[in-house]
Design brief:
By secondary structure, the protein is α/β, with parallel strands linked by helices. Among the domains are: 146 residues, Galactose-binding domain-like (Jelly Rolls, Sandwich), CATH 2.60.120.260; 64 residues, Sandwich (Immunoglobulin-like), CATH 2.60.40. Helices cover 26% and strands 23% of the residues. Strands 13-14-15-18-19-20-21-22 form an eight-stranded parallel beta barrel. Helix 10 packs parallel to helix 11, helix 12 packs antiparallel against helix 13 and helix 12 packs antiparallel against helix 15. The relative contact order is 0.09.
């Protein structure tokens, strides 16, 4: 009885200290009023929009979580709100958690820079307990950079008490194991081809003539962007986007016949490579026969009109997977292409917009035809791996490495981006690593120098995951390439830099020789002062110098220098040239 009295007394004292409110280990949602200000001229940093005393009376009110009000605006915008920690139980740390921002964020608390995050749909947090321990209100400010589509703080923000970081960050998907991907793809370099742009002829048959070169580059999997006839109604540009599919059962006449395509598949297989097709399941062209024959398979507005997925995608109509007839049609169509042409799988456009249960059904249907079929999702939601997809895009590492090459990110931030990824994805999930693709400006344009361009790509090519090359990247093609989706602009191979191609081939050769799908991977150096990163993958240790200075270092236990800008000094130390990478074992 005495012990019970003591416990009750201590409990009463704790309640009195906390203002008669119970101590909390529950998250506190930050979904109250937020302020928003667009910054198209990038003046916010210069004018101190992050300062506590900055006048925000003319900022608009915004809902969080949610997209910002101007769906057509891409660029920088600022968010501001007040936060306050309430009665956090002793022994707990306190995290300010963002489940996602679209796309990149810089965070200030009470006018002090607190941290950065690169990449959309990556959960991240800052330990904030010491700053909020006084229980007073504090000013939270974010600068969001959106690189395409609607931007904003698109998922919840909250304060969460925690004890262990793994419990805080680990997603439900990360506690599971991804179904095993086909063995042939688990370490395969990928090569993306836009057939219309690849050669002057822009045909399947002309692509066949380039297969030996592609194979010599070290490629094992070729991904073709959509090859279907392109819609004419509401077409963008002079020739339209291949993602506006007019007929799911045909090839575009400009590219060649179905028999031409079958010959291409046969020639790819003869060279021990595989091929996947880019399929658009979320929407179709406005003159696809499905609209006339099955209008109920599409999404309608309140007035009963078929609508696009969003205002920017005006050349396509949104498909509605609530209809069983649409699902049956799509499953049979996917099976038909495998049976008819012997392709090895698919890359699925905007996979996150299609219901996940459909993807699970699609994988099973395709496996019934070809057990070793492969699915690549254009998306990065971890749950895609548990619903049919073998591989997702690592947008987080694309953003991190491009920012690193431009001097806008530090090595520790890149390391942190990779570590956060490990908390999110199922065990065994395959991730596609890249520094450019058809949706982004060419890497040779984004990165400041030729050397940084190669160093940045090599970082992604030798790390854990599957490296990808977008056709033309291997000769340093430049340009703001996204508009070419709607035009006919063949690649200028003659003007290319073949030195880049040789480097990529060499790097992929090292990967094939020394790195296996289950090789251990660990980032071992992330030095902000010297702009140096290094990681070990299997027996290889790769060093990356993003600075303008030579990096001198020692490496105990080194067997040999394998490649790159590393040299052995007379005193047995090593030197790595500025903006170069090097590989030892």
């Amino acid at each position: 009885m005495k012990n019970l009295y003591t416990i009750l007394t201590l409990s009463l004292i704790v309640l009195l200290i906390s203002g008669c409110e119970p101590l909390s280990v529950e998250r506190q949602m930050l979904d109250s009023t937020w302020k928003l200000k667009y910054d198209p001229d990038k003046i916010g940093l210069r004018e101190g929009w992050f300062d506590n005393d900055h006048d925000r009376s003319n900022w608009e009110t915004s809902q969080v979580p949610g997209e910002w009000s101007d769906a057509d605006y891409d660029g920088f915008a600022w968010y501001s709100t007040e936060i306050q920690a309430k009665n956090i139980a002793a022994g707990y740390n306190l995290a300010l958690v963002f489940e996602s921002v679209d796309d990149n964020a810089v965070v200030w608390l009470d006018g002090r820079l607190f941290g950065k995050q690169m990449g959309w749909n990556i959960k991240f947090y800052f330990d904030i307990g010491e700053q909020l321990a006084d229980g007073e209100k504090h000013h939270l400010v974010l600068r969001i950079e959106d690189t395409g589509g609607p931007g904003g703080i698109n998922k919840p923000v909250y304060l969460e008490p925690y004890v262990d970081e793994m419990d805080l960050l680990r997603s439900p998907a990360s506690k599971q194991t991804a179904p095993a991907a086909p063995q042939w793809v688990q370490n395969a370099p990928i090569y993306e081809v836009f057939v219309r742009q690849h050669t002057e002829e822009g045909t399947f048959l002309s692509l066949i003539e380039d297969l030996d070169r592609i194979q010599d580059l070290g490629i094992e999997l070729i991904w073709l962007m959509p090859i279907h006839p392109i819609g004419e109604e509401h077409r963008k540009g002079s020739v339209g986007s291949p993602y506006a599919v007019q007929d799911y059962y045909a090839t575009s006449p400009e590219l060649g016949s179905l028999d031409d395509f079958k010959l291409l598949v046969e020639e790819i297989h003869k060279r021990d490579m595989h091929i996947i097709l880019d399929f658009v399941m979320n929407h179709s062209a406005w003159d696809n026969e499905l609209i006339e024959n099955h209008p109920d398979w599409y999404t309608h507005d309140d007035a009963g009109q078929i609508i696009p997925p969003n205002t920017d995608w005006s050349d396509v109509a949104d498909l509605n997977y609530d209809n069983p007839g649409l699902r049956k049609y799509m499953l049979e169509m996917l099976q038909w292409w495998i049976t008819e042409t012997d392709i090895d799988g698919y890359r699925f456009d905007v996979a996150e917009l299609v219901p996940y249960d459909f993807w699970a059904d699609a994988k099973k249907a395709c496996q019934d035809v070809k057990p070793e079929v492969f699915f690549l999702a254009e998306g990065k939601v971890p749950e895609l791996h548990l619903n049919g997809h073998d591989m997702t895009y690592s947008w987080n590492m694309w953003e991190a490495m491009i920012q690193m090459s431009q001097g806008n990110a530090d090595p520790t931030e890149v390391k942190r981006s990779f570590e956060l990824e490990q908390f999110q994805y199922p065990k065994g999930a395959l991730r596609m690593r890249f520094t450019e693709n058809h949706d982004k400006t060419r890497a040779a344009t984004l990165t400041p120098t030729r050397e940084l361009n190669m160093t940045t790509w090599a970082f992604t090519a030798l790390m854990k995951g599957n490296p990808m090359i977008y056709a033309g990247q291997e000769v340093g093609i430049t340009g703001e390439y996204s508009p070419a989706i709607f035009e006919r602009i063949p690649l200028d191979w003659e003007a290319g830099d073949m030195g880049i191609s040789q480097m990529m081939s060499d790097v992929l050769g090292l990967r094939k020789t020394y790195i296996k799908p289950d090789s251990p991977f660990q980032i071992i150096i992330a030095n902000n002062d010297k702009k140096i990163m290094a990681y070990q993958h299997g027996p290889l240790i790769s060093f990356y110098n993003f600075s303008a200075d030579t990096f001198n270092f020692s490496a105990g236990g080194m067997d040999s220098i394998l490649y790159g800008g590393i040299s052995l000094n007379a005193d047995s130390t090593l030197s790595l040239l500025p903006q170069h990478f090097g590989v030892i074992k």
